[in-house]
Design a protein that fits this description.
By secondary structure, this protein is mainly alpha-helical. It has one domain. Helix content is about 60%, strand content about 5%. It has 18 helices and five strands. Strands 1-4-5 form a three-stranded mixed sheet. β4 and β5 form a beta hairpin. The longest helix is centred in the last third of the chain and has 27 residues. The protein is globular. The chain starts with 18 loop residues before the first helix and ends with a helix.
């Protein structure tokens, strides 16, 4: 998630998910020396080669995952529209289910962006674009921004690409009072989980922010997504009424968006998340040590498309989401690496600054005490 700054225009590469190419395009070495603070207990490059065995998507399985998500979502959403006549609160009871199904559609769109859902590149693109109409996320714009995020995870010199703004303690202490206040407001849970998701999905995604000069494809992506979404909502407005459509659609979207931002936050904002400057950073090592494993109950794991297994996903982004649990079964040592549970996540929202000396994220209170 990114509010204040914009990512730079991309290079004209045919494959925006070729992470190492993106790294090279930004002047970041994929072979930089590993940091002394990164977890070197795992031979990351050897593990990456082994994980390549899990990359191949299965057409029948992918088709089932899409159908078993899209059809229930459309049915639940339709039920909500019809239920409004019997009482809005009855309809609202279905909103969490519809929101979680919409979130799962976004995870499928996410896999398409990594070319992990189908073997065919064009198939991934068009499924991702179609799902973007429901998630209000222009596929081509999001795909590019997300590729930059993967290419720079854990790199303090390359922050700001599709992530949550994070200052170091020294940077924060050097800011003026108003800048500190703005940053504290930005990092507040109400903004991160409430105002932020609403801004991102209702406003920011309507234009190719950060990619306006990068090529016509991003304008086409944003405008086409807006147009098709508008046609669907206008059609529902004629059938059920504009007010009914709005009071059904908005809660579903915001539940999905806020849950998605919660997931994204805890995937990279946890106590032992590793960051370093360019000279001490390496792509593979920090993909693993800069991403968490959020262990969730099986039901939530299904709704979130196993995206909690995020350290594996960052190390090998082309593994289909439905094969990530297979990786943990094959390599059980990964279950204990950067592991957090849902109950532990509320405390993580207190973490707001990266302490370069202690090599960990800290709260504002800790930072003040250490600085004093």
């Amino acid at each position: 998630m990114k509010f204040p700054n914009e990512p730079p225009p991309p290079n004209d590469t045919g494959d925006v998910i070729a992470e190492n190419s993106t790294i090279a395009a930004q002047g970041i070495s994929a072979n930089a020396r590993p940091s002394a603070v990164a977890d070197n207990s795992v031979d990351v490059r050897a593990l990456t080669k082994k994980l390549a065995a899990f990359r191949t998507p299965r057409l029948s399985r992918s088709g089932w995952e899409l159908a078993s998500t899209l059809v229930p979502f459309m049915c639940v959403f339709a039920a909500m529209l019809f239920a409004v006549d019997a009482g809005y609160y009855i309809s609202l009871l279905l909103a969490p289910l519809a929101g979680l199904l919409l979130l799962r559609l976004f995870i499928i769109q996410h896999d398409c962006g990594h070319e992990a859902f189908l073997k065919n590149r064009h198939g991934n693109k068009w499924i991702g674009r179609a799902i973007g109409v429901f998630t209000l996320t222009p596929y081509d714009c999001w795909q590019r921004s997300h590729a930059l995020h993967h290419a720079s995870t854990g790199n303090l010199d390359a922050r700001g690409f599709g992530d949550v703004d994070t200052l170091t303690v020294r940077e924060y202490m050097s800011r003026g009072r108003m800048q500190r206040l703005f940053y504290r407001l930005y990092r507040h849970p109400i903004v991160l989980l409430g105002l932020g998701p609403a801004y991102l999905f209702l406003l920011r995604h309507r234009l190719p922010i950060g990619l306006m000069k990068a090529g016509a494809i991003y304008w086409i992506s944003a405008i086409a997504t807006n147009a098709v979404t508008a046609v669907i909502l206008i059609g529902l407005g004629f059938a059920f009424g504009a007010a009914t459509t709005a009071i059904v659609f908005l809660p579903v979207l915001l539940i999905a968006a806020s849950t998605g931002v919660w997931l994204f936050y805890v995937q990279h904002q946890f106590d032992n998340a590793q960051w370093d400057y360019r000279e001490g950073w390496s792509y593979h090592q920090f993909a693993l040590s800069g991403s968490s494993y959020l262990e969730l109950p099986a039901v939530l794991g299904w709704f979130t498309g196993n995206i909690g297994i995020h350290h594996v996903h960052h190390l090998m982004s082309r593994i289909p989401f439905y094969r990530l649990p297979d990786v943990l079964k094959a390599y059980p040592e990964l279950r204990e690496m950067n592991r957090i549970t849902a109950r532990q996540t509320p405390r993580l929202f207190l973490l707001a600054l990266y302490d370069e000396d202690r090599r960990r994220l800290v709260s504002f209170r800790e930072a003040k005490r250490v600085s004093a």
